[in-house]
Amino acid sequence: MRLKNITLTFLLSLALTAVVFAQSGQDQAKADKADAKSAPKLVVDNTKFEFGKVKEGEEISHVFKIKNEGTAELVIANVSPACGCTASDFTKTLAPGQEGIVKLSVKTTGMNGWTERYADVISNDTTQPNLKLWVKMDVQKADAQAVKN
Predict the structure, then answer these.
(1) Beta bridge partners of 94
(2) 99-114 pLDDT per residue, tens
(3) Which of 41, 15, 29 is CA-nearest to residue 126?
């Protein structure tokens, strides 16, 4: 009889432990799902801009409009141009629904013909932590005759 009571107590304890672990696993899954839903989302209408023809030596700029369509604050850690001829200015944080900008400026000195430059937008958007923005231009050398006049 005593062995039967000990076995029954052990089995009940084991069952209760299993229920507690299962519940904590469900609670963690719910928390993980809530965290996944609460995330920033970087959106840009167009990741490329084409200037067309520009004169060599000009500094040209384009402003990309960005938006946070997520449910958590978007943090842009950096906008990193791939070339020293390109500079950036950008909105650093965006609340959900807020709009901002990424401005890329390119110095065309020494360039000739079709050229493209890009910058990586590095953010806390886990679906696209490194978004590339491109600018393209057809750099025209100054006419030697026009320079003499």
Answers:
(1) 74
(2) 999 999 999 999 999 9
(3) 41
